[in-house]
Amino acid sequence: MDRAQRCAFIIFGITGDLGARKLLPALYALHRNGRLHPETAIIGYARSDHTDGSLRAKLEKSLERFVPDFDRKSWAHLAPRIHYIRGGYADAAGFATLHNHLKGTGLESRILYTATPPEVYESIALGIVGVGLNRSEGFTRLVIEKPFGTDLESARELNRTLLQCFNEEQLYRIDHYLAKETAQNLAVLRFANTLFEPIWSNRSVDNIQITMAEPMGMEGRGEFYEQAGVIRDVFQNHLLQLVALIAMEPPSNYDATSVRNEKVKVFDAMAPLKPDRAVLGQYVASNGMPGYREEKGVAPDSRQATFAAVHFDILNWRWSGVPFFVRSGKRLEGKASQIVLQFKVPPHIPFTLDRDLKPDRLILRLVPNEGITIRFNGKVPGQGIDLDRISLNFSYGSRFNRPIPDAYETLLLDVMLGDATLFMRADEVESQWRVVMPLIDHLDLELEEPHFYSAGSLGPKAAYTMLTEQGRHWYRPWD
Ligand code: BG6
Q1: Which atom number of ligand 1 is nearest to the Cα of residue 216?
Q2: Distance (Å, whole) CA 368 – CA 244
Q3: Global confidence as pTM
Q4: Residue among 146, 211, 238, 241 to mutate when testing ligand 1 (max atoms within 8 A of CB)
Q5: Are the C-beta atoms of 314 and 247 separated by less than 8 Å?
């Protein structure tokens, strides 16, 4: 069992939502499972007025809320190792105080985490360098939260600044989808078995579908979403990462360099996303839920897309001719993230059937009920040949009797171990932006109204026609 290296873990913006919902629960879980080095110091840095005591009390409250089996006894061991430093993100005095505090801890290695609004990432990097916080006997690693830029140009600019301050090996760009159990299992499924590789290409696969459906609306993020929209929020990052995990060639080693090299090749083989390959939607009031335009921080005539269904093509020998259909939206029927590989029907069917033969499917469920299902045709017992659908089902919950760690728990441990495999490299993020830029440029012009869909539905009709026009259809995530 790997245990994190001894270090100070500094969280910029510790008083924000990410700290409360994800980072502290993850650090607490690592501490509770014996994965955190016992001498780890957690240092919160933010602008609000707090003392060590008031920060600890605030964090305790949020742990009670977000950790189902919160245990006060183990918190009592972790809490005294949490300290607070008040400072601005462009404030040299604040960074100097942080530096002095770190000297006092005697911890030479440090992880610096940007849980702040993205506008201050660059000034944090410059502030760190300004006081020499990046120079020490131990390691210094900077973790950059999403969103990484708002377009290709700003992502390049951010990379340029970060790389003036740090080496690429010190930078950990987060995409928490990579640390989801099923996303990681995808690599194991493909590269630790021989069963799937021969059918993992345009020879057998008809199309691939990725769905990321969310029932929530804006939850107070209306202002952010007005700028981001669904393409920047989840397509440029999470969904493209899932596409890459499905489409990449087997790496020679499962390490940061080999895996990221293979993923970049996929992005480079992707045709840039044109507007005519996308259906964009926006939810309207229904089922007692407000429409997007009624959400706080959203313009009453906003044309921002809260839903998109897009058709990606990967132009290489393995995937040419296989459409990757990817859809995601807010205020949909329920929560589900899944990947479906739909296989071709056999070239000849020797049975007389009274209905069309359904294609075989491999379904990878990220949420809910993490697991894998294979759907295929089987014979109904009895005389004659009658077919029905059969499922082979693997569920993490019933196979492994242990809780699935939250993605952030895995990611924070990896940063403390120095393993960047689940993080994105500079060229990788830029390649991802390159793929979505034509659609983003088009969207920013706000030329057309999006397709409207009812809150609580499965998105606009046009997303369905996009597939039925090709003789295909979406696989429902909850079937
Ligand atoms: C975030 C997006 O990156 O991912 C959110 O900004 C989205 O809009 C979230 O809700 C989804 O993550 P998960 O882990 O709940 O599927």
Answers
A1: 10
A2: 22
A3: 0.95
A4: 238
A5: yes
218 lines ligand 1 (CB under 6 A): no
Instruction: Quote the CA–CA distance of 422 and 175 in Å, as a whole number.
Output: 8
176 is catalytic: no
What single letter denotes the amino acid at residue 325? F
State the distance from the centre of ligand 1 to the C-alpha of 452, rounded, in angstroms.
22
Taking only the tens place, the pLDDT of each residue in 342-399 is 999 999 999 988 888 999 999 999 998 899 999 999 999 999 999 999 999 999 889 9
Residues in contact with 464: Cβ distance below 8 Å, sequence separation at least 6, in sequence order: 473, 474
Report pLDDT digits (tens) over 405-439.
999 999 999 999 999 999 999 999 999 999 999 99
31, 83, 176, 238: the catalytic one is 238
**Secondary structure class of 52 (helix, strand, coil):** helix
Q: Which atom of ligand 1 lies closest to the CA of 337?
A: 16
- Cβ atoms of residues 21 and 66 within 8 Å: yes
The single-letter code of the amino acid at 356 is D
Bond into 25 cis (ω within 30): no
- What's the distance, CA 46 to chain centroid? 25
